[in-house]
């Protein structure tokens, strides 16, 4: 089967690429605009919509759980009522529980919901128990520290081996809590507690993660390490695909980002390596890339 496309729907004011795109002007998410964008991504080939209410870019300030839930739950409920497959990008067990309750209220099977947790070694103790009890799916991401500290935690004895070992330690927490192997998706954590060169090394060795026997999610879309390769000027915030009047309207196709072509190349490489899914901002480019790989492999 072709690699799954997970489309990113950031409901944050400060995400590195598209923060504030769905702000209603009064500090709340524009639910109609956000759902419209999710439907657009689905039409372009996104099989899962990844909804997030907290930026986890390096240096980002933590978002209180109540604020995170205020941003995502109204949109999540609408997406679930539209019978869309959804992933919730959260580090907090309380937000994951609120999302699962939202799924139940919308008539969705909690086991179909994916919790995309990038907290890595700082995973909250309650998260494995929640996943085991509810049967929801979980993305376990390799990470050290939080947004404030992870950039200083990039020393490894042997990068690939250490990342795999720490991922498997995290996996054991879930298995020990009673989660089933089929619920678990692994993510090597590109951009989290890694230098630019370490990101490239992990990408070269992506098959090592696939061989662990779990679904593997690959998320490198528009991340900073691509900037030096595509010749962007340094300094300042990354070009924003969701600024201006088009963003306020919410329905317009986002402007092309200078890292989207490079992201599509990596999506193709991830598909070639056997990754189950790629998490991307630009759905169409990565959809085309993984379909080409699927055709070649067939």
From TrEMBL:
Q: Pfam families from the entry?
A: Pterin_bind
GO molecular-function terms, A-Z:
dihydropteroate synthase activity
Which EC number(s) does UniProt give?
A: 2.5.1.15
Instruction: State which pathway it belongs to.
Output: Cofactor biosynthesis; tetrahydrofolate biosynthesis; 7,8-dihydrofolate from 2-amino-4-hydroxy-6-hydroxymethyl-7,8-dihydropteridine diphosphate and 4-aminobenzoate: step 1/2
Lineage, top-rank taxon, reads: Bacteria
Quick one: where's region Disordered?
Answer: 230-254
Low complexity bias located where? 241-252
Q: What are the record keywords, sorted? A: Folate biosynthesis, Magnesium, Metal-binding, Transferase
Q: Which cofactor does it need?
A: Mg(2+)
Q: Which Gene3D superfamilies match?
A: Dihydropteroate synthase-like
Which InterPro entries does this one have? Answer: DHP_synth-like, DHP_synth_dom, Dihydropteroate_synth-like_sf, Pterin-binding_dom
Query: Which PROSITE patterns would you find in this protein's record?
Result: DHPS_1 (PS00792), DHPS_2 (PS00793), PTERIN_BINDING (PS50972)
Residue ranges of every copy of the Pterin-binding domain listed in the record = 3-291
Does the record's keyword annotation contain Magnesium? Answer: yes
Catalytic reaction list: (7,8-dihydropterin-6-yl)methyl diphosphate + 4-aminobenzoate = 7,8-dihydropteroate + diphosphate
What NCBIfam families does the record tag this protein with?
A: DHPS
Function summary: Catalyzes the condensation of para-aminobenzoate (pABA) with 6-hydroxymethyl-7,8-dihydropterin diphosphate (DHPt-PP) to form 7,8-dihydropteroate (H2Pte), the immediate precursor of folate derivatives.
The record's similarity note reads: Belongs to the DHPS family.
Query: What is this protein's name?
Result: Dihydropteroate synthase
